[in-house]
Automatic annotation (TrEMBL):
Keywords recorded for this protein, A-Z: Hydrolase, Signal
Protein name from the UniProt record: PHB depolymerase family esterase
Pfam family, one: Esterase_PHB
Hydrolase is among the record's keywords: yes
InterPro entries named in the record: AB_hydrolase_fold, Esterase_phb, Plant_Biomass_Hydrol_Est
């Protein structure tokens, strides 16, 4: 057994003992793919370690499948909650537990496929525990985690009224130091690989497990999560019937970190100039008019890309007094049949935060309008 292999499996064993199963999975995948030197990098940086008696255990993992290798290292450990010690936004205090009504479940799960692995939280409604009527995949923003995002958006409560399940995949800090979905990297912008493949596979698994109606499967996200939701809509249009993008960015506007920041500032090439494919499903966009992180012009670009063949466009302004929330300009686009195919809610005075969000979550604006309610309405409306 070579030194790189031993170091890689040593790290996998350490991560498993610490109950970091997603990271352990990533390390084992690298080993099984014949890249132990990648998995062993941190150990190598800290100096070579003597190979001791525990090498026998690492040797026993050689040649095992990913699942068998994980079970080998878990050694009877209970499946952990990978989000239990995570806080919300950077600098915020640790929040409390996510409340769950009687009869509902909020499970912690792991999903593993050829493209990689992620842990996720799954809300199963009390109103339809055996067979939820639909599924919404919710993608958090940078520095957030599934529990934080569930609390802040209040989507579980909204989903309960419709009998929907809600999945909250969690990004790992080993894949992005700030916990961002890597929407700006080319390897995570296409079908069949990277994060889109992991998230689509996770979605398909849940749909199959509960027998969910395929026409009632949706994806939404905030900021980097919103940008990744747009990527999923484009790369897996047959899987997601509609997409919700909150304070996000259009696809194909970035290829690295530098261009990502340029796009966030309102620059970058548009989809039209790059001849990129378009998402054929329905799209709802929420954007704060005073957002200093993602320029509001990105919302218009998302809408334009989603509705190149819109037959009619209408805009109305909802004043603050009428709906008891921040004023908002609502743009609606319809097709030739008069069916709504896209909406843009430009919320006046709102920053980079989930509109109508709940206390206990990060990056929320309780003043509203309620993005979770409006997204659910848009997703489930009859076209």
């Amino acid at each position: 057994m070579n030194t790189a292999f031993a170091a890689a499996m040593r790290r996998a064993s350490k991560e498993t003992r610490a109950q970091n199963l997603v990271e352990a999975t990533r390390l084992i995948q690298a080993v099984l793919a014949g890249r132990p030197e990648v998995a062993a990098a941190p150990d190598a940086a800290s100096g070579a370690k003597a190979i001791g008696a525990d090498d026998a255990r690492w040797s026993q993992a050689a040649g095992l499948s990913l699942g068998d290798a994980l079970r080998h290292f878990k050694g009877g450990l209970l499946t952990p909650d990978p989000f239990a010690k995570s806080s919300g936004a950077s600098g915020s205090k640790t929040r409390g537990e996510t409340s769950v009504p009687g009869g509902a479940r909020f499970e912690t799960r792991d999903f593993v496929c050829a493209a990689g692995a992620r842990s996720y939280r799954l809300y199963i409604p009390a109103s339809a525990p055996a067979r939820p009527r639909g599924l919404i995949v919710m993608l958090h923003g940078c520095t957030q985690n599934p529990d934080d995002f569930a609390r802040g958006t209040g989507m579980n409560d909204v989903a309960e009224t419709r009998g929907f399940a809600v999945a909250y995949p969690g990004q790992t800090r080993s894949d992005n130091a700030n916990g961002c979905w890597n929407w700006f990297e080319p390897k995570h912008q296409g079908r069949g690989a990277g994060e889109p493949a992991i998230l689509a596979g996770l979605t398909q698994f849940i749909v199959a497990e509960f027998g969910i109606d395929p026409s009632q499967v949706f994806v939404a996200g905030l900021s980097a999560g919103g940008a990744m939701a747009a990527v999923l809509g484009e790369t897996y249009p047959e899987l997601y019937a509609a997409v919700g993008v909150h304070s996000g960015l259009p696809t194909h506007t970035a290829k690295d970190v530098a261009s990502a920041f340029a796009a966030m500032g309102g620059g970058g090439k548009t989809r039209e100039s790059q001849g990129a494919p378009r998402y054929p499903g329905r799209t709802i966009v929420f954007q704060g008019g005073a957002d200093k992180t993602v320029h509001p012009s990105n919302a218009t670009k998302i809408l334009d890309a989603a509705t190149p063949d819109a037959a009619s466009i209408s805009t109305r302004r909802v004043p603050a007094g009428e709906a008891r929330h921040r004023p908002a300009a609502i743009t609606t686009m319809a097709d030739q049949a008069g069916d709504t195919i896209a909406e843009l809610w430009l919320v006046e005075g709102a920053g980079h935060a989930w509109s109508g969000g709940k206390a206990g979550g990060s990056f929320v604006d309780p003043m509203g309008p309620d993005a979770s309610l409006e997204m659910m309405r848009f997703f489930t409306r009859k076209t």
